[in-house]
Amino acid sequence: MKKITIGSQNNNIEIDSEDIKNIIESFDGVGEVKNVSDSISEDIMVFNIILNSDYVEDLLGSQIEDLDYSSEDENQAILYEQAEYISDALVDNIREFLESRYKIDNCHGAYDIYRASLEQGIGLTLTLSFGQVKHGRLYKLASNINDRHEKLN
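The structure assignment produced for this chain is given below.
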């Protein structure tokens, strides 16, 4: 668990990574969230998120039928592209919720997808910063965490 103190509209507040984890778990389609914020030393929160396969299938609807007629490489490319759209929307919704809840206007988030599968769902690493670190650095961190995870498995 990690706690970060940030400036809100009226005063300083403390944000707890376990609270953020619980918030993320409340979003539609989120099947599992692991708080791995302690894996980095910076004032950044990090979460491994899995969007469940039923949710992904519901969102993709008729596009899934089109996958049956494509090659495996085309299927993976299409699925990954759709996973990016789904993940973009999720991260935007999380950021908006956090900004509203904590009355802040400088929440930054980035993600890196490590799995896009109809059977296993979408897996992504989300990095969040509250003003200190911008998108480019957050994305690089998420990507590096995924690279380390792949080497261990």
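Interim note for the steering committee: The mean pLDDT is 87. The chain is about 45% helix and 30% strand.
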